[in-house]
Amino acid sequence: MDNGNKLRILRNQAGYSQQDVADKLEISKSKYCRMENNETTIDVIELKKILEIYNISAEYFLQLKFPLIRVISFPEKLLDELEMTINENINITDNWNLNRERFNLLRKSLNPVLEIRDKAFDFPELKLEAIESGKTIKTVQLDMRGEELINKCLKLQEKYCRVLFG
Q1: Are residues 97 and 140 in the same domain?
Q2: For 74-79, what is the mean pLDDT?
Q3: Which of 31, 42, 77, 124 is the most buried (most CB within 10 A)?
Q4: Is the pTM value of this prediction over 0.70?
Q5: Residues whose CB is less than 8 angstroms from the CB of residue 152 and which lie 6 or more positions away in sequence, other chains included
Q6: How far apart are CA 143 and CA 115, in angstroms?
Q7: Beta-strand (E) ranges in 7-57?
Q8: Which residues contact 90 (CB under 8 A, 6 or more apart)?
């Protein structure tokens, strides 16, 4: 993996903007952008600062490679709330308004779980055009309880949709 992608990965994992990192490195944002785009090399002083910013060793930086491994980890409280919402709204009624309200409760409870999942599948930190075709770039390890609850909630929402919208 090239140094630009390594920098991009580290920056995104830390939640920094390019300007944040440039400021910490005491360089211009344009120079930092060139580093991420592999248009300039990283000198020893900059590398030392990068290691300090991210609290990593040189070995860790040099050994970053594909595939990136992401583990989806949902907060237990979030999954517990989703499971409770599913269980409380499992029965469809003859009341259209109550069914609509229950459908919306399911959607509201599911959305934060899907946001976490979507983020794990995204590639904002990578410059994909620089990566050879056919290469495995990322591996995502799923949280099986979360996946089961997502599936259960989506199936229940589908039932509500059929009742509500035909």
Answers
A1: yes
A2: 96
A3: 42
A4: no
A5: 86
A6: 14
A7: none
A8: 156
- 83: which DSSP letter? H
pLDDT of 125 reads 66
The upper half-sphere exposure of residue 134, i.e. CA atoms within 13 Å in the direction of its Cβ, equals: 0
94-137: per-residue pLDDT in tens? 999 999 999 999 999 999 999 999 988 876 667 767 677 777 77
Residue ending a domain, among 49, 65, 81, is 65
* 85 and 157 part of one domain: yes
Q: In the chain, what is the greatest distance between 2 CA atoms, to the nearest angstrom?
A: 70
Domain end marker among 36, 65, 94: 65
Strands 68-71 and 138-141: parallel
Contacts with 131 (C-beta within 8 Å, 6 or more apart), sequence order: 5, 66, 137
How many residues would you count in the chain?
166
Whole-number Å distance between alpha carbons of 136 and 95: 49
CA distance 14 to 12: 5
pLDDT(71) > 90:
no
State the first-to-last Cα distance of the chain, in angstroms, to the nearest integer: 51
Round to whole Å and give the CA distance between 64 and 125: 13
Same domain, 78 and 139: yes
Query: CA-CA distance, 57 to 115, in Å (whole number)?
Result: 31
Same-domain pairing of 42 and 102: no
